[in-house]
Specification:
Layout (H helix, E strand, L loop, with lengths): L5 E3 L2 E3 L3 E3 L8 H10 L4 E2 L16 E4 L2 E4 L11 H10 L4 E5 L4 H14 L3 E5 L10 H4 L2 H12 L6 E5 L5 H10 L4 E4 L3 E4 L1 E2 L4 E2 L5 E5 L4 H15 L3 E4 L5 H10 L3 E4 L1 H5 L4 H16 L15
Parallel strand pairs: 3-16, 4-7, 7-8, 8-9, 9-10, 10-15, 15-16
Antiparallel strand pairs: 1-2, 5-6, 6-14, 11-14, 12-13
This protein binds flavin mononucleotide (FMN).
The site of flavin mononucleotide has 27 residues, from strand 6 and helix 9.
Function: Catalyzes the conversion of dihydroorotate to orotate.
Cofactor: FMN
InterPro entries: Aldolase_TIM, DHO_dehydrogenase, DHOD_1B, DHODH_Type1, Dihydroorotate_DH_1, Dihydroorotate_DH_1_2, Dihydroorotate_DH_cat, Dihydroorotate_DH_CS
């Protein structure tokens, strides 16, 4: 597996496949499952300062082309960070703590708590499409991206990764995140979405609106990563519809140094991680490269 080793956002990973935030990373039991599945780093659920129960059900609807969800950032709050970090560290894996908030002060407090708990990096969620006052409302405004990332980066020494969704001014927003001290970006989060029951004549999700993930958003992720890599050549962690080696490889060729798997862990099961890793190894042999790093951004070459 030596050829699959990558460095991204200051982390050394034995292969490029980690979980996406929100899938199994809010409690130690979930972290254990991720470790057993073979992820190269554990990404936690987004933690907020106060515990959040989440939205009323239904919180997720499977679709033929992806998953529609409005979980509502349910998490145990700032005090839950340390147990999750400990569990991942016990397995010897780097741990990325995802944080979400509605003010610079909240982000600073969460970042400090994550560093104190032993996190290896912080992923700042600037892109949740359904939590009011949080996430996407920050990510769509480059000025706010700057202030939140700098509030986070200024209180920690560990790498800060800005997680953005596909927004109109994405390249500008990434530029602001970098200026504010982000070491890398994760692209993309779910896209704003909604479903209506035609007989009930009502929205299906308990929260009415939510986010779309899975295969449907994969081409959007490819484009987002391609555009950002073309502009800055920075470390990018790709997310969005990764469900096999091919979808993972596409994000790498667009410019991602590592990939995250979210929906496929739910729809295909935990073994998908091992399948992607093995598939990438075979692909590297097929195309004759010794290190996956040679493939990062390769689609940009003439
Ligand atoms: C059920 C669910 C919960 C999620 N929760 C979070 C979260 O807490 N923080 C976050 O940054 N992204 C969250 N996401 C977004 C994922 O991390 C990922 O960016 C997105 O789903 C695209 O990847 P995928 O197509 O592999 O699922 C969530 C996604 C799903 C499906």
């Amino acid at each position: 597996m030596a050829g699959l080793a990558v460095r991204v956002a200051g982390l050394t990973l034995r292969h490029p496949v980690m979980n996406a935030s929100g899938i199994l990373g809010s409690h130690p039991e979930g972290v254990k499952l991720l470790v057993d599945a073979g992820v190269s780093a554990v990404v936690t659920k987004s933690f907020t300062v106060e515990p959040r129960e989440g939205y009323p059900t239904p919180i997720a609807v499977p679709l033929p082309y992806g998953l529609l969800n409005a979980v509502g950032l349910s998490n145990p709050g700032i005090d839950g960070i340390s147990v999750v970090v400990e569990e991942a560290r016990r397995a010897g894996l780097p741990v990325v703590v995802s944080i979400a908030g509605s003010s610079e002060d909240e982000f600073s407090r969460l970042a400090s708590a994550a560093e104190e708990a032993g996190a290896d990096a912080i992923e700042v969620n600037l892109s949740c499409p359904h939590a009011k006052g949080m996430g996407r409302e920050i990510g769509i405004e480059p000025r706010l991206v700057y202030s939140v990332v700098s509030a986070t980066a200024s209180v920690t020494r560990i790498p800060v990764i800005a997680k953005l969704g596909y927004v109109d001014r994405l390249v500008e927003a990434v530029g602001k995140a970098l200026e504010a001290g982000a070491r890398a970006v994760t692209l993309i989060n779910t896209l704003p979405a909604m479903m209506i029951d035609v007989y009930a004549m009502k929205p299906v999700l308990g929260n009415l609106v939510g986010g779309l993930s899975g295969p449907a958003i994969h081409p959007v992720a490819v484009r987002a990563i391609y555009e950002v890599y073309r502009e800055y050549r920075i470390d990018i962690i790709g997310a969005g519809g990764v469900e096999d080696w091919r979808t993972a490889a596409e994000l790498v060729l667009a410019g991602a140094r590592a990939v995250q798997v979210g929906t496929a862990l739910v729809t295909r099961g935990l073994r998908v991680i091992g399948e992607i890793v093995q598939g990438l190894e075979r692909y590297m042999e097929e195309v004759g490269v010794e290190s996956i790093e040679e493939l990062v951004g390769a689609a940009h070459r003439d």
